[in-house]
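Suppose a colleague, Dr. K., hands you the sequence of a protein chain of 135 amino acids and asks what its three-dimensional shape might be. Before reaching for any lab equipment, you can write down a predicted structure in token form. Begin with the sequence itself:
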Amino acid sequence: MNVDLIGAGPVLHSLRFDDGTQFNLTHHRDGNMHELSIAGANVVVEILDPLTLKRRSREDAGGTGGVVKALMPGRIVRIVVNQGDAVRKGQGLMILEAMKMENEILAPADGTVDQIFVAAGDTVEAGAPLLHITS
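The predicted structure, expressed as tokens, is then:
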């Protein structure tokens, strides 16, 4: 089914389906919070960038060593550390290309890189182990 979404103002939109059904939709945004109203129903959702969410949860946990995992599927472009390297919290470890964007994978804590599970050019799925840091 195809759907057309047409802006009719700063917060008002028209949502039209293939069968001719049409709804008016309002959208208000305040930061990450989005309020949608359609057909008498109101929905409030928070939309977060997955990288921001993952970094925030690591910061809340105090940042510990361990297995660093891919936050999203992609391809390893470059690894900037070697096995045995000492790293500092927030230091770049590798570059993961996802959706035509390069994302820097950062160290969650101070420690030593004791294992690297991937190589440049490898394709990984979300949650795949990339490397291990011993605190």
